[in-house]
Design a protein that fits this description.
The chain is α+β, with helices and mostly antiparallel strands. The chain is 22% helix and 34% strand. It contains nine helices and 20 strands. The strands form four sheets. It has a six-stranded mixed sheet, with helices on both faces. The chain has a six-stranded antiparallel barrel with strand order 15-18-17-16-19-20. Strand 2 and strand 3 form a beta hairpin. Helix 2 packs across helix 7. The protein starts with a strand and ends in a 10-residue tail after the last strand.
């Protein structure tokens, strides 16, 4: 199990650690997941997400090459902007969802999920022409996320770029070190993700904790990251999306450049969109008391199986259970359905995420 550059800092802060994507990661700190979640919604939190992959694709025509592989259309954005995209297999399943950063026509940076980073690098290397180099910086760099309504003030106090549009990024110099400041995140709140060499990430973490104390900043673990992203309806690879779940089924088709002439899985996805999927993603909001979890069976009012939950949690913001689920295409918004929670049928309403409203633009 790999250790992130900030591993000893998490130990010193009393974090509860656990395995995630092949890395030992902080699940929660002594404050607890609910308090960490609420800090991000009302003030500011800091996450170590150094387990995420870091890939650079460079060489003449790098943008064109990446655009021919991933689903979204890089021609929709300009240099200095980021884009949510996916790497699919030939049958249309999602190998990984990732963020693409367009640094130039000849340089594209990609942040894949931790457990899929090796697969993404291998796929890109296998498809790349000789003029294109695919560089894996997974172990050389770390990432810290600063998220919450007070995150711009924390960034400014540390002398870091904070005046960026959503899904934009900038390469800056901080204390003589190179840092990429990305106006991105996985919480639904205003926030930033900072990418830098491991040694710089350690300094950034320490400085952010020190400066952020005046703004109510708290360290947050993967527990809060999960409750925050579920409230927003953000998908998690390996649960809500996978090589067996397509963008059409997962409702992530908005990140597909349907007009592009080429990307992996294009023909299969076009056919599925034309025919219509047999299952599709929905949100579930608990009516009765109870907490749905991933991989629980879902039934209609006639007690017929209609699908399965893919993610589920207690929403600290709403104080009730919520879930994401893949359900039969015949299910409709507003339907009353039932989740089998360890033998008890939990009554839920079919809703369209996000479950909470935030301002991230």
């Amino acid at each position: 199990m790999a250790e992130v550059p900030l591993y000893s800092h998490h130990i010193a802060l009393g974090a509860k650690l656990g395995p995630f994507g092949g890395w030992q990661m902080p699940i929660e700190y002594p404050t607890g997941t609910v308090a960490e979640h609420q800090a991000v919604r009302t003030a500011v939190g800091i996450f170590d997400v150094s387990h995420m992959g870091k890939v650079v694709v460079s060489g003449v025509g790098a943008k064109e090459f990446v655009n021919s592989v991933l689903t979204n259309d890089l021609n929709r954005i300009g240099i200095g902007q980021a884009q949510y995209s996916m790497l699919c297999n030939e049958s249309g399943g999602i190998v990984d969802d990732l963020i693409v950063y367009l640094a130039g026509e000849d340089e594209v940076r990609i942040i894949p999920n931790a457990s899929n980073a090796v697969s993404v690098v291998a796929a890109l290397q296998a498809l790349a022409p000789h003029s294109i180099e695919v560089i894996d910086n997974h172990l050389a760099q770390g990432i810290v996320a600063v998220q919450g309504p007070k995150s711009p003030a924390v960034m400014a106090a540390l002398g870091l770029e904070n005046d960026l549009h959503y899904m934009a990024f900038a390469d800056v110099v901080w204390e003589d070190a190179s840092v990429t400041v990305c106006r991105t995140g996985y919480t639904g709140e205003v926030g930033y993700e900072l990418v830098a060499a491991n040694s710089v990430i350690v300094r950034l973490w320490e400085s952010l904790l020190s400066v952020g104390a005046d703004f109510g900043l708290v360290p947050c673990g993967l527990g809060a990251r999960d409750t925050l992203r579920t409230e927003m309806g953000y998908v998690l690879h390996g649960q809500d999306i996978s090589p067996d779940i397509s963008p059409v089924e997962a409702r992530t088709g908005w990140a597909v450049g349907w007009g592009k002439s080429e990307f992996v899985g294009r023909e299969a996805l076009l056919a599925q969109r034309e025919q219509g999927p047999q299952r599709i993603a929905w949100g579930l909001s608990a009516i009765d008391r109870g907490i749905p979890r991933a991989h629980m069976a879902v039934f209609n009012a006639a007690d017929e199986p209609i699908g399965e939950t893919t993610s589920g949690t207690f929403s600290p913001t709403l104080s009730k259970g919520i879930a994401l689920a893949l359900l039969a295409y015949e299910v409709h918004l507003g339907d009353e359905i039932f989740v089998d929670v360890r033998g008890r049928k939990l009554r839920c309403e079919v809703v369209r995420p996000p479950f909470v409203q935030t301002i991230i633009t």
